[in-house]
Amino acid sequence: MIAPEIKEIEAAYKSNYSTIHQSFLETQSDFLKDIYIRYNSDMNNANIVLFFARNLHKRILRERDSDLDHDISLQNFWNNHSNTLQKKLKIIDIAKITGLPKETARRKMQELVNLKILKKTNNRIFWEPIEKDKESYNKVINDHIHLLTSYIDTVSTCLKLKLNKENIKNEIKSNFSFYWFHYLNTQLKYLKICKDKFKDLEILLILLQCSIQENKNYVKDNVSWFDIFKTKKETKNVEISATSISMVTGIPRATCIRKLEKMKSKKIIMKDPDTKRYYSNAQANINLLDNVKISKNIIQIFSELYFILIKGFLRNNKNLILKS
Q1: Predicted confidence (pLDDT) at residue 284 exceeds the cutoff of 80
Q2: Which of 60, 114, 173, 265 is 20 to 30 A from 164 in CA distance terms?
Q3: Residue 273 · residue 294 · CB < 8 Å
């Protein structure tokens, strides 16, 4: 079987937008919530660590330049981590990829060094978590592999591909650094898009919760990307509270209220005066997470990711995916 082309993937994504979008929103919410909490409840910290981790996986992959049998599995990851010299990274490169001002990036890196998440030796800063964080890493990664596999399964179903989910999980673990390099690379692109739009990545976490509730209105009818912006309506039936957002994301309730009120003042979201709950403003597509321009960019980068993943799966084991 030949992997579908990127244009085919994008077309399937747009035709089945509300269905794929729901899986996407839930996957992103869980992934970003986990890294937010893991890196001192700070999305800028998390963004920087993703950059260091992506570059580490890239360095590990270079080992295959001289040894095609080099073990890049999840099981061998910490051994690869110990034996891979992490490249010295420039502040200007970190700022460019994350969208942070240079001085903010510098300050956040020092904060991560103080937290013993990054390590500094001879003016070289690299990702070196302490042992207790290494111990929890595999569990977190297994959870994220499960999320990614579910998302891939949703896209595959819309492409009329039959996916062996358990084998896909095992394939990702077997060639972990390859798949995780591309996954983190895509996440960095996604966060840069959202950072440029919203400036504040905590707002992204909050908006994801609002969008998850709103999109449920369209999943049943599998509303396409071409139609979803024509059918936008007020969604007071899927209101969400600051308390529930706080519980899901780990963002303090007071912070949620402050940022929700800020978004309300900009008419990004609405607030019911009786219930004090919030819901998406259907007339504010220009500001919402799923506006036309942003969604088009997101569809493109995640279609490219899916294309890379499917090609990798088929190259390594053609029995993982079968035409239905």
Answers
A1: no
A2: 60
A3: no
Write the pLDDT tens digit of every residue in 37-86: 999 899 999 999 999 999 999 999 999 988 989 999 999 999 999 999 88
Nearest Cα to 292, choosing from 227, 195, 211, 196? 227
Q: Are 60 and 162 in contact (CB under 8 A)?
A: no
Is the Cα torsion angle 270, 272, 273, 275 positive or negative in sign?
negative
Name the helix (H) or strand (E) containing 149: helix 131-158
Radius of gyration of the CA atoms of the chain, in A: 20
Q: How many whole angstroms from its chain centre is CA 121?
A: 30
Beta pairing class for 118-121 and 124-127: antiparallel
Is the confidence at residue 255, as pLDDT, over 90? yes
The 10 Å Cβ neighbour count of residue 242 is 22
Q: What type of residue sits at position 51?
A: F
Residue 283, pLDDT > 70, answer no
Q: In the chain, where are the structural domains located?
A: 6-323
The amino acid at residue 288 is: L
The CA distance from 171 to 157, in Å, is 19
Asked if 4 and 307 touch (Cβ cutoff 8 Å), the reply is yes
User: Pick from 196, 136, 153: which is nearest to 26 by CA?
Assistant: 153
d(Cα 307, Cα 321) in Å, to the nearest integer? Answer: 13
- The C-alpha atoms of residue 29 and residue 205 are separated, in whole angstroms, by 7
With b for 16 or more beta-carbon neighbours within 10 A and e for fewer, the 284-305 pattern comes to bbebbbbeeebbeebbebbbbb
**Strands, E assignment, 23-69:** none
